[in-house]
Structure prediction request, 185 residues.
Amino acid sequence: MHSRGYVRAPPSPTPRPGAPSAPFQEPGDKNRQNEETAPMKAPRPSRADYARFVPMTTRLRDNDQYMHMNNVVYYEYFDSAVNEWLMEVPRLILPDGPCIGIVADTQCTFYSEVKWPQRVEVAMRIDRIGNSSLTYGLGMFVEGEDLANAACRYVHVYTDGKIRRPEPLPDYLVAAAKTLVVDKG
Prediction:
C-alpha cells in the first residue's frame, strides 16, 4: 500500500490500448515490413497537374525548431490561396456573404521540406465539383522546381452564410470552379 491508501494494480498481461503489437525492429531485421508490403505513397505531383499558381514568400516565423516549415503552416498557405481565389474569381464575399465555404476534410502528403527564406507557389486545381462542395487539389512548390514539396486535398462544403447549412453550389461558383479543372487525359 502507498502512503495515501491506494493499492497499485499488478502489471497487466495484455498490452494497453494503442500500444504497438510488436517490439521495435532494427533495420535489417528479416521480419520488418519491406518495400513490397509497405503502403504506397501517392506519386509526387508536378506543375503540369495544376491550373493556377499563387506566388508567396516564406517567413522566418514559418520555421520550427527543426529549421523547416512547420506542417501546420502549409495549411495557412493553402487556405490563403483558396480564399484569395474565392474573393478574386467567383467574388465570394468573405466572411459573411450569402455563400461561404467551410473546410470539411483535408489531408496533406509531404514530399520534401520547405524553409525560410524561400519563394514558393501554391498550385491549385479542382478535383471534384459536388452538389454543395468543391474538392481542391493543392500543391506547394519551391520557386523554379517542377515537383511538389507537398500535396493537399481540401474539401469545402458551401453553406448559407447565415444559418451555416449546406446549400447547392451557385452557378457562378460552379462556372469559376470549372476553370480550375485539369484534364487528366
About this structure: Residues 19-27, 31-35 have pLDDT under 50 and may be disordered. Residues 71-88 form the longest helix (18 residues).
